[in-house]
Amino acid sequence: MSRPFRCRKVRCSPDANYFKPRGIPIDVLEEVNLTIDEFEAVRLADLESRYQEDAAKKMNISRQTFGNIISSARKKIADVLVNSKALKIEGGVVKIMERYFVCYDCKHEWVLPFGSGGPNACPKCSSLNIHRAPQDRGWAKMGWGGGRGKNRCGRTV
Ligand SMILES: [Zn+2]
Questions:
Q1: How, if at all, do strands 109-113 and 98-103 pair?
Q2: Domain tally for the chain?
Q3: Is residue 119 predicted with pLDDT exceeding 50?
Q4: pTM of the predicted protein model
Q5: Quick check: 8 pLDDT over 80?
Q6: Dist. CA 125 → ligand 1 center (Å)
Q7: Residue 121 Cα, ligand 1 centroid: separation in angstroms?
Q8: Among candidate residues 60, 89, 118, the one where a domain is terminated
C-alpha cells in the first residue's frame, strides 16, 4: 500500500527516538517501527487519557482512522515489551498543516498556514479564479529527520 507524499521535515524530533532492551546484541535484536502518528496517538489516548473522539480531532483524522492507528500502536508496543524488541520511532503519515492554492489563470501556486483564512484573489495576478491545490488533500508522509540513511523524498505511485 502506498500513498502520494511530499518530502517534509518534522520540526520537533525527540531526543530519544530509539529504545533498545539491555543485554541483547544488536545483530539478533528485532526492531519494531512505531510511526510518528502512532506515537502521537498513544500520547493522546494513553498518556493524556483522552477519549478517542477527542484525540482523533486533535490529529485531524476520523475516529475510525484513529482507532486503527492506536490499535496498531498498542500492538507494536506490546510486541516490543513482551518479546524484548527494539523500538524505533520514525516515519508514518502526518497531516500537512498548510494549505496549497493554485491560480488557474497564471498557474501561480502558493502556501498558507491553516487557520489563516482563505485567500480572496491570486497574490500575483489578482485573478479570482483560484482553487485549493490537490496536493493538500490527504496526508503527507514524513521522515523524522536526522536521517537513518533512507531517502524518503519523491513521490510514490
Ligand atoms: Zn494568478
A1: antiparallel
A2: 2
A3: yes
A4: 0.53
A5: no
A6: 4
A7: 8
A8: 89
